[in-house]
Write a structure and sequence with these properties.
The structure is a homotrimer. The first copy, chain A, is an alpha+beta fold. Helices cover about 25% and strands about 40% of the residues of chain A. The longest helix of chain A is centred in the middle third of the chain and has 13 residues. Chain A is elongated. The N and C termini of chain A lie close together (about 5 Å).
């Protein structure tokens, strides 16, 4: 018998960088005893992203951050929208270059993540922020 | 009782830029009295994108456009595929850098969009185009 | 009556480039007689992407590859994570700039792909790899 369920995850960021929240998603799944279905995540912001990336060597996250800092530099003279700070428009561009939605099959109570995949919130602003992710499950 | 529903949205663009069509999606939801579930959008083209971005200051859209115009310039000598115009291959690259799929939870008849999030069709070609978005709903 | 189904697709890549696997997905749909619903694809890797792109002129794939090779060059001195080869960190960045999830409505037994859209696995590593895509269907 198929059913669905909703949840909202609150995540506090401490400045720019990648925050692994795979465990928070897995805890929600385990607590509700979801076994098989589809898990959807939607980040309710326009200056941070959701990303599935390598969870082994932390240098990968450092390099992702360095690459995006070079590609979309803070304070770029190209930008008109500067009223919220010189990292605000770069944060919108970084979000456009990545995504705010993820969809993951769930089977045998386990997300279909690969061995080295983790689910990250990528904070693009330099200041700490309160972020929320809307979660949806449909399945058994 | 879970059910599903399909729709195809026709959107006419008037050249390159971001077109907010949040209201068209919300009208489809309201008309069908969808209350809780998952809404999926798929854009059926390879030279335009779907994007969730800030719907407040229009300068954000201007700057997104300016950034992508600099990153993927029209008429770049790198490109071999030029038979459909000097903005065609850049449009494919912009589409690859963004996305053509979105997935949004719906709860209490409301999409899980954040306060400042709108749903945009990003037209990457300079000429007007007729675009279609396939919509899917599953839920109650 | 709604039902769901799972599958895992094994795809062997022969080095960097775009591999069309639309037919493999369609064969799974036909074999199981899925008629209407939502198809989700999740790539279980962090150095390759899923991409919906033009399936007509092969020059489009060549140019996508050329653009990404210029944007994220192998052996870039910016990167710290080099232990797995000079194409490894660029592969992670390319994956972050694209996506590993796709969601497609299915109606009348046909995916909601546009006329020119194909489903691609984009291999970002130079060496051959064994890749797996988790498939999920919910519908009728």
């Amino acid at each position: 018998m198929l059913r669905q369920s909703f949840h909202e995850l609150a995540l506090a960021t401490r400045g720019r960088g990648l925050y692994d929240f795979t465990r928070e998603v897995e805890e929600w799944i385990a607590k509700n005893n979801f076994k098989a279905g589809l898990v959807t995540l939607h980040l309710r912001h326009t200056s941070a992203s959701l990303l599935i990336q390598e969870n082994a060597d932390p240098d990968v996250r450092t390099d992702l951050e360095r690459f995006f800092a070079r590609l979309v530099p803070d304070g770029d003279g190209l930008f008109v929208h500067t009223c919220e700070g010189d990292d605000d428009m770069p944060a919108h561009v970084r979000t456009a270059l990545t995504t705010v939605n993820l969809s993951l099959p769930l089977r045998g109570g386990e997300l279909a993540l690969g061995t080295w995949q983790g689910i990250y919130l990528w904070e693009h602003r330099r200041a700490p922020h309160a972020r929320t992710v809307a979660l949806h499950f449909i399945g058994e």
